[in-house]
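Re: [help] complex structure
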Amino acid sequence: MTEKRIRRTPSQTIGPFFAYSLAAEQYGYAYNSIVNGTLLDPAEEGELIYVTGNVFDGKGNSIPDALIELWQADANATYRTLPVSKKNDGFTGFGRLGTGTHATHKFSFVTIKPGGTTELQAPHINVILFMRGSLLPLYTRIYFSDEKEANSKDELLNAIGPARRKTLIAQRIEKPGLIEYIFDVYMQGENETVFFEVEK
Amino acid sequence: MDTVNFNVHPPHLYPEYKSSVLRSPTKPLLPVAKYLKDLSLPAFGESVISKFDNDLTKNARRNGEPIGERIKVSGTVTDEYNRPLKNVLIEIWQANSAGRYIHKDEIHDAPLDPNFLGGGRMLTDSDGRYTFYTIKPGAYPWGNHYNAWRPNHIHFSVIGHQIGQRLITQMYFPGDPLFEYDPIFQSVPKHARELLISKFRIDWTEAEFALAYEFNIVLNGKYQTLFENV
Ligand SMILES: [Fe+3]
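Output below.
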C-alpha cells in the first residue's frame, strides 16, 4: 500500500448505445439484466410507490437516451449492504432504467417509499443520471411533496435557495390503487434541476 | 515538488461535442460532500455474473465464432492511493469488428455479426483485477460534424463502493489516428488523455490466441472504504 496519489480515470459519455449491456431486458435484447426498474421484493413492507418522469434537454425536448439509476433506503431508512444477487432475496434499493422504451421517453420505477435516515435527512432517493451528450455522471435527489415537515428540516434541501428547492421535490398523485410521484429532470432553463458536486 | 495535475475530468459543456450543448447544467453544482460522504453504492454478488459474461467471444454465439481480432482486456480497479477495489461491478459494451453496434437505433450500415452481442460484465477479484475476452471493435462514423468518426473504443461502466466511485468511461487503443479528430476523447484535458488509452502488453498476450491490452481504472479515493466485507 502506497500513499502516493495517482490520477483517476477520466469520465466519458455513456453515448447512445448502452442499452443492450446495461438494460438489455428492458429494451428486449438477447441478454439478461442484473438490475431493472423494480426495486422491491414482493414481501417488502412499506408503501408501494411509482416514481415516474422525463428528462428534458435545454429546448424542452424529452431525452430518449438517458439512463437513470436510483439508490435508496428501505421503509426503515436502512440501505442494503448485502450484495445484490440474482435471486429475489429482499429489497435491493437499487434500480436502473433507460428512457428509450416508452413512447414519450418516460421512466417508471416501482419501489417502496424510503424512510427518513436521520432527523436532518428527509426521506429521499439518490439519483445518478447519464445520457448521450453528458460527459460526467449527474447526481441529484428525489424528495417527496407530502413530507413538508421533514423536508423543511433537511440539511441538504436547506442548502439550496428556496427558488430551486422545488426541482428536487417529486409531486405525489394518488390514483385508485396506485401512488405515483412525478419527478421530471430539466437539464437547463427556468426549472433546471439542482445537480450535486458529490466530492466537494 | 508535486506538479501532477489531478483534474482529469472533462467539463460538462464541451461545445465541440455538440450534444453537450443542450444537455449540460448551466448553473453551478451544489457541493454536497458533507451530506453524502458516508453513502455507499450497492454491492453485487457473484450470482449476478453468468459463466461467459466476461467473454464476449462466447456469450452470444449462435452458429460459430464472431468475426474479428480476438483480444484480451485486463487490468485493475484501484482508488487513487492505489488500493485495490474488490467486488467492483464492471459492465462493458462496444461495436463489433466492423464498427457496428447491435443497438436498434444504430443506422451505420456496416454488417451485424450474428455471433456477437458486444455486451459483458464481471466483478473484480480480491486484488481488484478483471479480464475480458472480446473482439477488437471497429471505428464508426457519427453525426457530430462532417466526416466524424469515433476512434476504436470499449465503453466501461464501473460501480465502486462509495458514491463518488461511479464511473462511466471509454477505453481506447494505442496510436489511434482518430484521436486528434474526436471531440469526445478531446473533451478530457490534454494531460489526462493518456489515462484513457490502453497499453499493449506483449507479456500478457496469449500465444496463438489473443493480443492483450492493459486498462487500469482508478476511482476516487477520498473516502475511506467502509465495506471491506465479502
Ligand atoms: Fe461508442
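Residues A 15; B 150, 153, 155 surround fe (iii) ion (CB under 6 Å).
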